[in-house]
Specification:
elongated, alpha+beta, 3 helices, 63 residues
């Protein structure tokens, strides 16, 4: 069983996916469509999917 654990650890080390330090990445805006209104907007990061106009609406703030 211990051989299986070490094999798993070895594969995790050599998976080719290295963590990137967020401080070392540059901010690149990308045009995305808002998930609420479908209008294009300049997204500042990969997880930003709702535009500032929609986030400022009363509906968004109410949850």
């Amino acid at each position: 069983m211990s051989g299986m654990v070490s094999d798993t650890r070895q594969r995790a080390k050599t998976s080719g996916k290295e963590k990137v330090n967020p401080a070392e990445t540059s901010i690149v805006e990308k045009k995305r469509n808002c998930l609420t209104c479908s209008r294009p907007f300049a997204s500042e990061w990969v997880g930003e999917r709702v535009c500032k106009r929609c986030k400022g609406s009363a509906t968004w703030r109410q949850g």
